[in-house]
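ARCHIVE RECORD
Type: protein–small molecule complex
Small molecule: adenosine-5'-triphosphate
Source of inputs: curated submission
Record status: active
Notes field left blank by submitter.
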Amino acid sequence: MTPMMAQYLKIKSDHPGAILFYRMGDFYEMFFDDAVAAAAALDIALTKRGKHEGADIPMCGVPVHAAEGYLLTLTRKGFRVAICEQLENPAEAKKRGYKAVVKRGVTRVVTPGTLTEDSLLDARRHNYLAAWAEIRGTGALAWVDISTGEMTVAPCKRVMLPHLLSRLSPPEILCPDALEPELRGMAEETGAALVPLGAASFDSESGQARLKALYAVASLDAFGQFDRVETAALGALVNYLEITQKGKLPLIRPPVREAPGGAMAIDAATRRNLEITQSLSGGRNGSLLATVDRTVTAGGARLLERRLSAPSQDLAEIRDRHDAVEALLDNPRLRDDLRDALKRAPDMDRALSRLSLDRGGPRDLTALRDGLAQAGTIAAMLPDDLPERLVRAAQDLLGHEALTDLLDEALVADPPLLARDGGFVATGYDTALDEARTLRDKGRGLIAGLQAQYTKLTGIGSLKVKHNNVLGYFVETPATHSTRMTSEPLTETFIHRQTTANAIRFTTVELSELERGLLNAGSHALELEKQIFARLCRACLDTAASIGHAARALAEIDLTTGFADLAAGSDWTRPRMEDSRAFDVRAGRHPVVEAALARQSGASFVANDCALSAEDDGAAICLLTGPNMAGKSTWLRQNALIALLAQSGAFVPAREARIGTVSQLFSRVGAADDLARGRSTFMVEMVETAAILNQADTRALVILDEIGRGTATYDGLSIAWATLEHLHNVNRCRALFATHYHEMTTLAEKLDHASNATVAVKDWEGEVIFLHEVRPGAADRSYGVQVAKLAGLPAPVIARARQVLETLEAGDREGGKRAPMLDDLPLFAAPPPPAPVVEKTHPAVDRLAEVQPDQLTPIQALSLLYELRGMVRDG
Ligand SMILES: Nc1ncnc2c1ncn2[C@@H]1O[C@H](COP(=O)(O)OP(=O)(O)OP(=O)(O)O)[C@@H](O)[C@H]1O
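STRUCTURE (tokenized, with ligand):
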């Protein structure tokens, strides 16, 4: 075995669960199974290199300069990648002996939850790493976004874990290895990679020690009270970061404990149904988030996603948010100015995080310089008679003059991406650097001057002084001059280096000396720039906490301005929030459907009321019936979204709204297939309904859309019936219930707190016209057949359906004789012949058909002729 392969195998054995990117010069190489897996995942060529134990060693590689793209693909596919770098250059290794292998070591393990590079992240979304801990039946989930430094922990029961995961969608979840089998299915459902760790990672005592060390504090009390299981989850996160970042810990803000009951509870199915951050087709387009997003900064966009994913239940907090939106709504000039200024504020959170991990570049420094300068400008724009929330944000933006002055003085306006090549420190900032640069530039000038000197000496006009990475500086002439150049007296000056097909290359003593001087000056300048870079990074990291506050304040101002802009542009209103169980919306609209209608056809959305206030300790249930396509689902969802938007801090698409805070939001749609989970349509529907009936409290808002439709009519009706009774009598919550079972409308008479509503349509010459108006009362019929006709079902099928429907309805009228009547309808009767296409004939032809020529007098015949001609002329 070669010494290099021995080194590879040793390093690989320390990282069994990751693909090892083994640095060899300008490439990261992969070997053995890693190579096979990576070649398939990355669609690159699999080759071989040497033999191990008699068999070929599979190998593949990616160029270092393009590695980020490949890392992205691998992490998206759920792989972890250990980056193994050369820790010395080959010359240093050679000093140890001819056969010495270059020292290598893993500098970082790239995993889906620990990304920081802009190119690997979506700027407008969070990227969370989560850890689940359990101690004697109590559980806690902790999560951190290392690209922004936010870390949170929440106590959580195991049954509620899927809901929390669906809110955060972390790409990677850590868990104690003993729990892995139980959690695997759950992780797969959320699309996360599950990483089992040994029990030691989750030990609460060591967790506490790790956290204390991280924040350099003697006790965690200053950050709040964390119980054992919460400390265990937080400690596991920190431990994992230590392992993957190889001791270089990112900047992490003190953990925030999310109290149970702080956020409106929304489970995974509800999130899917309401298409809050993702549409049913999977993308962001068509979601509520995409429709209401008017933010102009990445931080603002991330905050919006957080707020919509976890609306508040805290009345004071919600009113506070609305106050701020209202103030900016009333001040359009200020709003426009703020938005213009915010557009120029870079993403400081992510820049800071990269700097803390030594992964930053000069552009991260200028992001902080420009961001903090912009923060100052924005603070100056905010008058101090604004609501408390905005005044507080304005204060957080201030106080960074010293750092901005420093960065301003030290950096050029548009620096290069990497610190490696230098060229980012401004002239005039550091005298030693300026001198080194002058020397370097002078050297370049002198070398350029040599060309003229040598042209004169040789008399060869085409002689050039050139540079490449292999030879450095050299003199080149066309090959035709080779004899002259390699004979006396020119050989006294020119030393031959290389002959190519067309040219011949030389060096000279003078050129080499100048080059050495230039290289020395150049590397000295570079060294100085690197030192300055490190100093500037330290200066930024020393004030990291207050930069973080400024970044958060910018996000808050951006979100508030965005909400105000949305309210102004879309005619939204401030909801009146109460500590009650009111739900009274006047002229409400569905923001996403309204926007889609405006985009597609320019049609306007019909606004509808919803009076669903619950009194005393009773329920408030509205049973909605109405034809297919009338707008039932739209109405149901728009009311859920109005509650969600209101508690997120936004205004709502309605003329007026009075809402008592909602604790839990549930939304279910009957019968959506879930083949991936191997459950039948109906099973899914029932599991989800059961979850609501078991959990909904009196402050919940429940939306059930055609529950029961996935089974036979009578079973479905019975289940829907019993479900509604349970919601009314036991859960006693606010609920909207849409159904096609008209039989259920009688329930409204039987139950005290239930009412009927319907969506109006007009029947016009057998065609259905949708009015989209929700009114009190029950629907008379479904118009399913008419809707089917609109959808283009073949005419014979429609005709047959009408026939069946009439028979069934006749049976109903005669008192439940449904079955016998159906028997009368031969099931396999030949389909009725297609209705003959009746072409409308001209009235003149009809008139002519009536004529009996034998009974006409000549005069009558003549006048008939005139009459017919008249009819034809009139058209
Ligand atoms: N208030 C409204 N104003 C204008 N158009 C509307 C309104 N409500 C719904 N629509 C339009 O009608 C379409 C159908 O609405 P929706 O899906 O809510 O009907 P539905 O009654 O639930 O139908 P089904 O019973 O077949 O599921 C929507 O896609 C939308 O284009």
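CURATOR ANNOTATION: Residues 593, 597, 605-606, 608, 626, 628-634, 772 surround adenosine-5'-triphosphate (CB under 6 Å).
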